[in-house]
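Protein in question filed below.

…
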Amino acid sequence: MIEVFLESLEFYGYHGVPDAERSVGHRYSVDISLGVDSQAETTDSVSDTADYGKIGAELVRFGENQQYRTIEKLASEMARLVLDSNPKVTRVRLSIRKLLPPAPIIARAAGVTLELHR
């Protein structure tokens, strides 16, 4: 088993509980770690592993084009997308942060982490 990861993948999305947040949008950051049934360490072929460039682009597109009220739902749907579209991926651990969240507190980020298995 190989672990493939991306750190601090950013996108601008329209998620949040208040209608205004889903209208104005916000910056998000994603860290993702994938358990991969890989042979690339032997074959040196990207087709034998998870293509992190392709997966990153899919996550950015998804985050920019969908809308959810909760960050939990967004994280769950992103993780499910990765599992469903990448047969070599057996585990997804995904953390998503809303950067400088609009709340009555001062915080660099707010977010969730979840893990899904095939």
User: Anything to note?
Assistant: Residues 16 and 69 are 4 Å apart (CA to CA). The helical segments are 19-24, 40-43, 52-65, 71-85.
